[in-house]
Specification:
Distance between the termini: 87 Å
Number of strands: 2
Helix content: 25-40%
Radius of gyration: 37 Å
Number of helices: 8
Mean pLDDT: 75
């Protein structure tokens, strides 16, 4: 600021207006950067280069690794400090959100609704069955031939020893009374 004001005013007057001693100002102007500050400046240029090459996705560990592969001697904490001081932060990965449907599209049409098979191996359907075990729920995927399931050969009911309906995990494990 004093340097800018020295064009219009004398240094003595500028220092007095800003409450700075002239000797302090001249000492500040005459000092050179330390060796460490110069090295940090050079390292910061390399950090910015690697950061920009990877579109801001790299954080201090990856940037340190990249710089070491290029032969630059640096530590991860030093790189992290320089990045923090210069507000360089890696872009975070977007959270994974599973998409089961496409936006704007309805459900797929049922193509086998009107079909009536007259021989085996014409129409197949899949079914998922849940079986409770001591380890947790076991999921069984079953593929059925629709002609056989319509004829009744695959059906199970109370008379065949099978149970219908969901009774929950507690009953299956013996914690709840059977219905």
């Amino acid at each position: 600021m004093i340097e800018e004001l020295s064009v219009q005013f004398r240094v003595k007057e500028s220092c007095a207006a800003l409450s700075v001693s002239r000797s302090g100002y001249y000492q500040w102007v005459g000092t050179k950067q330390s060796v460490r500050a110069e090295a940090n400046g050079e390292l910061l240029k390399e950090i910015r280069r690697v950061y920009d090459e990877h579109k801001g996705r790299y954080g201090s560990p990856r940037i340190t690794q990249q710089l070491r592969q290029e032969g630059v001697v640096c530590g991860e904490n030093r790189v992290a400090r320089l990045m923090r001081e210069n507000e360089l932060a890696a872009r975070r990965k977007k959270a994974f959100r599973p998409r089961t449907t496409l936006p704007g599209q309805g459900t797929a049409p049922n193509l086998i609704k009107e079909l009536e098979p007259n021989a085996p191996d014409q129409v197949w359907a899949s079914d998922i069955t849940y079986v409770c075990t001591l380890e947790g729920w076991l999921y069984l995927a079953v593929i059925l031939d629709l002609l056989e399931s319509q004829s009744g050969r695959l059906e199970t009911g109370p008379e065949l020893g099978g149970r219908t309906g969901c009774y929950g995990a507690q009953e299956c494990l013996g914690f709840a009374p059977a219905r």
